[in-house]
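User: Predict the structure for this protein chain, please.
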Amino acid sequence: MLKPKGDRVIMKKDPDKEDAMLSSGIVVPKAITTEKVINGVIASVSDTVTSVSIGDRVLVSMFAGTEVEQEDGKYLILKEHELLAIVE
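Assistant: Here is the predicted structure, written as structure tokens:
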């Protein structure tokens, strides 16, 4: 598992909100759809982050963070101030 440093969090991207494949086999990238935010769940937080906890569902801008791929899915490494909202 990734452990964030500084004021960063690790967010697991929602796999249902990834790129879509049409029946013709053409992949439609998420980046060209109308949504401007990414859904995800906080997977890890650094010791200095206090605004979110592991398991919180959050929204971030589609341009925020650095994407990394692990065996179990895609993650974003984000600074705490890049979090737009906590979904309750």
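The chain has a mean pLDDT of 84.
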